[in-house]
Write a structure and sequence with these properties.
It comes from Salipaludibacillus aurantiacus. The protein has a single domain, classed as OB fold (Dihydrolipoamide Acetyltransferase, E2P), CATH 2.40.50. It has 2 helices and 5 strands. It has about 70 residues and is an alpha+beta fold. The strands form 2 sheets. Strands 3-4-5 form a 3-stranded antiparallel β-sheet, with helices on one face. The chain has a two-stranded antiparallel ribbon with strand order 1-2.
């Protein structure tokens, strides 16, 4: 889970697993896998850093790296 801030300064917690893409329009817009869009105050890079930290905390980063290594071996 990552803590983010809406444009009205209200913070919320988002399950990063459901993030499909992040774009800056110039406001940072997060598109979820269900198509819902969220606009946040954090920059695209800040959101990406928080997601990476979340993935590391739950142990997903080593799993993803192992899968990438297997693909490269093929």
């Amino acid at each position: 889970m990552v803590i983010l801030t809406r444009l009205n300064n209200q913070s919320f917690t988002l399950n990063a697993i459901y993030i499909e893409q992040i774009q800056a329009f110039p406001d940072t817009t997060i598109t979820l896998t269900n198509g819902k869009k969220l606009v946040v105050k954090e920059t695209e890079q800040e959101v990406a850093t928080r997601i990476e930290h979340f993935y590391k905390r739950i142990g997903l980063i080593p799993f993803l790296k192992a899968q990438e290594s297997r693909k490269e071996e093929r």
